[in-house]
Amino acid sequence: MKKLFQNPVFAVLLTVLLVVGSTLISANLKLTRACERVTDGFYSGVRRQASAGQAIRTLCSDAEQMIIIGDNYGIDTAPLSADTSALKQAVAFDNPDIAAVYAAFDPFYTKLKILENELTHKDLSDRHSEQMADLSQEIAACRAQIDSSGYNESVSTFLRKNNRFPTRQFAELFGIAYPVYFA
Q1: Same domain, 134 and 72
Q2: Which domain holds residue 82?
Q3: In a 3-state reduction of DSSP, which class is residue 22?
Q4: Exposed/middle/buried for residue 180 (C-beta within 10 Å: 0-12, 13-18, 19+)
Q5: Contact of 34 with 158, CB cutoff 8 Å
Q6: CA-CA-CA-CA torsion for 31, 34, 39, 42, nearest 10 degrees?
Q7: Same domain, yes or no, for 137 and 172?
Q8: Domain match, 63 and 46 both
Q9: Structurally, how many domains does the chain consist of?
Q10: How many CB atoms lie within 10 A of CB 30?
Q11: Which positions ≥6 away from 107 have C-beta within 8 Å?
């Protein structure tokens, strides 16, 4: 065994293996961190812009308030209530699976807008009318915040930089999940 380590060919091969192995580990860590930074931007905001994750949480709160109002006027709010619960679970603990968050968000937002439309066309009490006006403004602001959060742009930038050979193949080989669009 001692002679094996004294053999110059073995020493060169071992050195090359160590350099390649450490390079692969380093590249894996850097790419994983880059993916995480993009995904984290969904919840923490991108370039000092408000976060889409916080806007979604606010929308869930708004939906819960609208459900209470809708229930007072005999509107079936059960589907929105179920979708609100599903969306709250999807964003719980800053879920990095943005595709799952969007899958929960899309039906939620559709039902939220339907209920908002129904309530704005109902003969509401003054208190509920005022509350609905505030909620409608907040819903519009939250949607604008989601659309302008910069998250999808950060995904585009990441993909332009990293979605090519050999980086993409390396990511697939090591099971690194690239960030996805919120769409």
Answers
A1: yes
A2: 52-148
A3: helix
A4: middle
A5: yes
A6: -170
A7: no
A8: no
A9: 2
A10: 10
A11: 83
pLDDT one-digit tens code per residue, 15-33? 888 888 887 788 888 999 9
Phi, psi dihedrals of residue 44, rounded to the nearest 5°: -105, -10
The verdict on 63 and 38 lying in the same domain is no
Measure the CA–CA gap between 17 and 11, rounded to whole angstroms. Answer: 10
Q: Which residue has the tokens 């908002």?
A: 116
The better pLDDT of the pair 129, 28 is held by 129
- Both 45 and 56 in one domain: the answer is no
Burial class (CB in 10 A: 0-12, 13-18, 19+), 16: exposed
Task: Quote the CA–CA distance of 112 and 173 in Å, as a whole number.
Answer: 41
Question: In terms of domains, do 23 and 33 share one?
Answer: yes
Listed residue (134, 146, 74) closest to 108, CA to CA: 146
Q: Are residue 110 and residue 139 in the same domain, yes or no?
A: yes
- Write the CB contacts of 90 (distance below 8 Å, at least 6 apart in sequence): 97, 100, 101, 103, 104, 105
Residue 48 backbone class (left: φ over 0; alpha: ψ -120 to 50; beta: rest)? left
| Full-model pTM | 0.83
* Separation between Cα atoms, residue 173 and residue 47, nearest integer Å: 31
